[in-house]
Write a structure and sequence with these properties.
Helices cover 33% and strands 18% of the residues. By secondary structure, it is an alpha+beta fold. It is an enzyme of class 2 (transferase).
């Protein structure tokens, strides 16, 4: 299956069966299927609740044999997400599988907001607080959510 056809199939799947709390689509499908934009809503009962975290997804020509490059464009205080939006998630690197769908990837990103990985981190301050002072971590993450990820700011 050609690269463009495969991305079109993923896009149609997302339209037919949207991922909960998530959305992604080509930024301009008439110009390019390589560059997508999307967002993840902060899950309930997390410090990210009420936020909408925007992201970009860039597909390499080798997709699905190589993972897309995914980066948050909304600032987020999270142990596994750098201040520049880079994401530490195994399925975006060593554990990528060509069988993984874009829908599945979005669900995994949403899950990362619910359950950060305390073993690896890109934001050292967030990682340290998550490990040692969960209340302070939640407070800062919630402040950042209100500051950067609410509708008036996104």
């Amino acid at each position: 299956m050609s690269f463009i056809k495969r991305l079109t199939v993923h896009y149609k799947e997302l339209q037919k069966n949207p991922a909960p709390l998530c959305h992604a689509e080509p930024e301009d499908s008439d110009k390019s299927m390589f560059h997508w934009i999307g967002w993840i809503e902060g899950p309930e009962n997390t410090p990210y609740s009420g936020g909408k975290f925007r992201l970009i997804i860039d597909f390499p020509p080798e997709f699905p044999f190589k993972p897309p490059a995914v980066r948050f464009t909304t600032q987020i205080f999270h142990p596994n997400i750098s201040l520049t939006g880079e994401i530490c998630l195994d399925i975006l690197h060593s554990q990528w599988s060509p069988a993984l769908t874009i829908r599945g990837l979005l669900i995994s990103l949403c899950s990362l907001l619910t359950d950060p990985n305390p073993e690896h981190g890109l934001n050292k301050e967030a990682l340290q607080l998550y490990r040692t002072n969960r209340q302070m971590y939640d407070e800062i993450a919630n402040e950042w959510t209100k500051k950067y990820a609410t509708e008036k700011n996104s």
